[in-house]
């Protein structure tokens, strides 16, 4: 039997009895080969906007470290930090309401306002009561161990943080990595607060850490669904504040903060754009079909 007859008879099954060998492959087998058929290239500014969430999280860590150093060196009054934390809470709550109003969300009710206020008061009182305990928590531990532990916990927090948007009209269950990220950041704040000299400074730093690592990540994810200019304003404000606070602590630290934030926001997206040309996804008729039930939007959220 000729090869032309084999090619006409060939079928992509092995359970049928055929006249040609099982390892026979016709010349037309690769005719339907496609490369990067489902690949949609990213644009540079889209990736810059997507990296704002990472930059915001890193900026909050740098801000917290700078505030801790100033408190530890008695260059910042704890009472000023307490009022700044209260003002930041009011501002963040107003931003949340603004984004909800623009998205026509009906989640903001009087009951939710009362619940948020009650929870805030309970956290405030709990931190005030625990401040004397936290101040002496690591009295028997050397400072070198505390610095290493806090650095490792902050790195873990940045790696495990959830940077996906948060839709108001969809019920989201917090991911395990997101919970671990918050716990790591709060734990690092606890061990650093235990090195402060007085209870008022411990209370102020812990209240500030709750704002940055427990409440702000929720607001950050919510802002990703809001107007682009609002997210850009928050990102620039946090990055500028982190660089300015680092400048008051150390010149080397300022350079490290600036380089880290610049790499995440501008260099990283450029590297990804450059690497796209090496993407080579080969698909053919031999691949199983992949059903697409809910097509995600540009930020990877399925409706």
From TrEMBL:
PANTHER family: PHOSPHATIDYLINOSITOL GLYCAN, CLASS C, PHOSPHATIDYLINOSITOL N-ACETYLGLUCOSAMINYLTRANSFERASE SUBUNIT C. The keyword Transferase applies. The keyword Transcription does not apply. Pathway: Glycolipid biosynthesis; glycosylphosphatidylinositol-anchor biosynthesis. Belongs to the PIGC family. It holds the Pfam family GPI2. It is a multi-pass membrane protein. Keywords: Glycosyltransferase, GPI-anchor biosynthesis, Membrane, Transferase, Transmembrane, Transmembrane helix. It is found in: Membrane. InterPro entries: Plno_GlcNAc_GPI2. This is Phosphatidylinositol N-acetylglucosaminyltransferase. GO terms for molecular function: glycosyltransferase activity. The chain crosses the membrane at residues 44-69, 81-99, 120-140, 202-219, 226-245, 251-275. Its main location: membrane. GO terms for cellular component: glycosylphosphatidylinositol-N-acetylglucosaminyltransferase (GPI-GnT) complex. One of its GO terms (biological process) is GPI anchor biosynthetic process.
């Amino acid at each position: 039997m000729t090869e032309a007859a084999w090619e006409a008879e060939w079928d992509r099954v092995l359970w049928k009895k055929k006249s040609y060998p099982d390892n026979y492959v016709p010349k037309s087998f690769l005719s339907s080969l496609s490369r990067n058929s489902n690949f949609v290239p990213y644009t540079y500014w889209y990736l810059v906007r997507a990296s704002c969430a990472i930059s915001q999280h890193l900026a909050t860590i740098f801000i917290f470290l700078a505030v801790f150093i100033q408190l530890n060196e008695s260059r910042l009054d704890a009472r000023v930090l307490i009022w700044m934390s209260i003002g930041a809470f009011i501002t963040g709550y107003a931003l949340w309401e603004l984004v909800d109003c623009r998205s026509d969300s009906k989640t903001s009710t009087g009951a939710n306002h009362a619940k948020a206020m009650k929870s805030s008061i309970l956290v405030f009182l709990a931190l005030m009561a625990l401040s004397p305990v936290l101040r002496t928590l690591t009295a028997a531990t050397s400072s070198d161990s505390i610095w290493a532990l806090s650095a490792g916990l902050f790195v873990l927090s940045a790696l495990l943080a959830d940077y996906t948007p948060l839709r108001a009209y969809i019920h989201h269950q917090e991911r395990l990595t997101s919970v671990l990220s918050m716990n790591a950041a709060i734990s690092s704040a606890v061990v650093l607060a235990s090195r402060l000299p007085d209870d008022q400074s411990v209370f102020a730093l812990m209240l500030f850490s709750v704002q940055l690592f427990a409440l702000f990540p929720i607001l950050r994810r919510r802002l990703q669904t809001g107007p682009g200019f609002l997210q850009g304003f928050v990102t620039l404000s946090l990055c500028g504040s982190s660089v300015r606070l680092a400048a008051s602590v150390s010149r080397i630290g300022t350079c490290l903060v600036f380089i880290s934030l610049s790499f995440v926001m501008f260099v990283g997206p450029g590297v990804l754009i450059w690497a796209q040309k090496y993407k080579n996804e080969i698909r053919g008729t031999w691949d199983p079909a992949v059903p697409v039930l809910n097509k995600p939007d540009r930020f990877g959220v399925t409706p």
